[in-house]
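Sample entry was shown:

___
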Amino acid sequence: MKRILLILLSTTVIVSCSKGGGKGITGNPGIKGELVPRGSSKSFIAERPYGMVPIPGGSFVMGMADQDFAATPEKAMPKTVTVSSFFMDESEITNAEYRLFINAVRDSIARGLLAEAAGEGGGEEGGDGGSIADYAYAGKKTGDEASPYQKFLESQGGRDGYDESKKLDKKVPLTYNTSAYPDEKYAEVLESMYLPAEKRINNERIIDWSKIKYNYQWEDVMSAVKDKDRGANYLKKESIAVYPDTTVWVKDFNYAYNEPLFDQYFWHQAYREYPVVGVTWDQARAFCDFKTKIKSDYNSSLKKKKQKAMRFRLPTEAEWEYAAKGGIENATYPWGGPYLQDDRGCYLANFKPKRGSYIEDEKKGNYTYTAPVKKFPKNGYGLYDMAGNVSEWTESPYSNSTYEFSSTLNPYLSNQAYKEAKKTVRGGSWKDVGYLLMTGYRDWERKDSARSYVGFRTVQDIPSGAGKFKRTTK
């Protein structure tokens, strides 16, 4: 009897010790002996990026399923495909948006040059830019205590590809106004970014934009998977001069007077909301990486950390065509029907309406060149200018057999697409006739080409397990 009582007491002790034992114990996999994941059980809500609209996943007939006057095989191989949900920019990237990109790259380069020149200047934390010492690397400023991790990296000689000690102090204001330069050393550094006097036209002080390059890297996943390996040797490093080619207005039209657009289109305030042009495929991809970086940096800066931002990228050819149809099966144009004008005789897109006729007509809504974004009706998904205005880069390579060997589920040729010189462009442009605006029509440009009629827009994946969307605030 005593033996049985002793066993019962022992069991009671074990149970009482186990009660609540998961609290504060590192490595405990669950609660009360069960595998219960910690954290909120709420479903993930996809945050809708500003200026983008959700495109619900679905199936559609890809290709010239309605009519194909030219009967060219590379443009008319219809087949049913399925695409997953994604966010897409509601309009093409504008001059104003792209200027934010190149200015951010310019500022980063300027800060790096100033930090190198400041050296061990001993600037104070929270300096106001009163001397070049204020632009020293954040890790070299007095009062900026290094974290244990930073100290460890420094003791190991830094980390390959990233040096924590060379973190820029972006709180110190920059100035490009010569009358506001804080000291002579600052002036020397900043002036090195401008064209030398002997190369200036009319002595105009202009930044040497060939020096303004965006550096980033991406992983060649397909090669890594093929080799059954992962590592830094599969990283592709890019250094892209990001300023658009403003000479395209002259180069594309040798026998036309387009000099005003060459001088004004990208920088003039009048063209702020016009689609950016003169951007190569590589520059468009660099913009996508920058857009991803600033969102990721913002998420990590919050006290209540957000999940890592999904990557922004160019749309695949299938995603672009699916989005352009606006949810209408076999839509000839983004608005559905086969006509280019509405019942009032107004054009539904910006294109070349007649032979030799580019004339702007406010009543009919036509423009001589590009039009400001969002001037024409949006399609069923809320997307503007999916036909006309400017053609748009896609991620996909252009090939006569693309439709033949690509998958019917999220058709894509992996990130090996970067090796192909020809890239698919979609949508037609302000210089094209109506036939080229059809949702199924394919065209191409070389990835290093910049054109006065090619722009782009970005997309972002939506996790298949995401709940309803949440709009971000302005």
About this structure: The longest strand covers residues 213-219. The chain has ten helices and 14 strands. Residues 112-193 form one domain. Confidence is low (pLDDT under 50) at residues 4-26.
